[in-house]
Specification:
single chain; alpha/beta; 181 residues; 44% helix; four-stranded parallel beta sheet; P-loop_NTPase; Partition protein; Rossmann fold; globular; 7 helices
Amino acid sequence: MTLRTDRQLPTLPSSSYIDGKTLRAQVMLQAKRFHHTVIDVGGRDTGALRAALLCSDIVLIPFQPRAFDTWALADVAAVIDEANGTRETPVLALAVLNCAYPVGSDNADAIEATQEFPKMELLQLTPDRAGIGRRKAISHASATGLHVSEYKPRDDQAISEIDALISMLKHLQNGIASQSK
């Protein structure tokens, strides 16, 4: 957010809670103030991840078409199953292929690996595109505090992929009774 403020760009409310108990309490307290809340807990099994799973409606699991990422899906699925055991309704677990390669069999192999986890739904962003491509515009925009649509030079494919993901998540969210409100 500091990068956005420094550029005099609009900011969004944001907070940082490393402790899982505090994260969950704050999400529950503030949930009524917002239509959508995004919690980024990184890719590790932490108290914050577990707390987020208890108060979230959807969990998005980005994975790259690489062996370590697909192997880690088993650990992620186990943590989600554990969290779902304490919830009234299970969290909707969505996997999305991230940094997909333009050619080769790696993407298909990674997608096939998700089939081992039937409680984890694979997002197909468009009929002809399984996920988000490996795009410099996305990483460069993020590193400078921008959404990919704000980044110059413009990358229409990157914008289209991120917009498709956001649209799909909003559509899915609208069909779920929130756990945090």
